[in-house]
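This is your field. Pick holes in the following sequence-structure pair:
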Amino acid sequence: MTMTRRDFLSASAALALMPTLGARAWAAPLPREADIVVIGAGAAGIAAGRRIMAANRRVIIVEASNQIGGRCLTDTSTFDVPFDRGARWLHNPDINPIIRLARNAGLDVFAAPPGQKIRIGRRNARAGETEEFLAALVRANRAIDDASRGKVDVSCASVLPKDLGDWAATAEFVLGASATGKDLKEISVIDKARAQERNAAIACRQGLGTLIAKLGEQIPISLSTPASRVAWSNRDVAVETPAGKIVARAAVITVSSNVLTAGNIKFAPDIPKRQLDAAAKLSLGSYDHIALQLPGNPLGLARDDIMIEQSSSTRTALLFANIGSSSLCSIDVAGSFGRDLSAQGERAMVAFAMEWLAKLFGSEAASAVKKSSATRWNAAPFALGAMSSAAPGGQPSRKILTEPIGCMFLAGEATHETQWGTVDGAWESGERAAEAALRRIGALRDTEPATSAAAKRQRRVAPGRSARGAPIN
């Protein structure tokens, strides 16, 4: 597992997901029948809907919230710049179909600047100190990689070198909470090591949530239509909602692993214990943004600068500064500390962000804050968390979730074995599930090659063992 300075951006890519303010202007009426029904209008659901429409089959997406995007949501009203309250980045621009679709839709996608800083108290780290930190990350990553080849899957924390010194807590934050939403003690070494490299972070100037909503414009979507009960068999499926019942020949279910295990949707018969246990082993971590408007750039940072601190505990954060050349900065909190802080409410979250800024930049910087807003994804009823990561021993659960359940097919980032935690992985999983559903209803022959971008990418990109810090969207 290699590491360069660019890999330090792994911390910035860890963006999981929160409720937003962007809304869709219209919603499709609820039909009584469809060839395939999709539950959830996040990235996976939109990808599935597009693939089904491309096969000229009738599809309806039912979405519990009043917005498209799932955990990709852009707030365009609170601040003077589009603010992605959830996922920020796309990856692998040479092969990522979402980037091509974004350009075709007239949206502006661009490579994220490689700015990176480490703060040690009230000063920036010196070159030699940065080298020490990067060396610590390399050693930690190598230890995780080596352990992933063992006979027993263990936690990432249990295999870390014991002599990382002053950089131990910082390395754990970057590789754990900031990259996956969980502390390393909760994460499988196999899952971490098998994560496909997330390179060349790509942003959308109008917001990633705006992009996903744009890609869903032509799909029939019924918003504010939660699925309350799903009756399924090997022949058909009936989805009950407050607006009525839809009968379809197959279903693609894209809800998060936490929503699936929470029982918010009743299934008849119940989802098999095999799949529920798998989802439980892929529970969502905690990742939230505390957005602060800081006019005049009192922190003295560049556009889209990323900064972390040399920390000694889990009580730390990541700073994403001057987003899109604006005065907006985001203090990101994650893992066990972020979960506890989020549970205390927005007031406590903003208070921590101010305290953290004052510690690193002085009280004048903290007093310059003009407006604030915090996300609380763990409390968002249609998400219940940020991104999935496997518990020790849980990595095989991702493949289990791709197994058909009668005529139902699960999708979402948790079902992707190598691109879990990313919008890329969610999109691919939606296309995969849609093609499986199309085959189920006879719209694709078993011998017919898949035409989706997901299948093409699987042929072109071999899963890698390197997580390079596992930057997660």
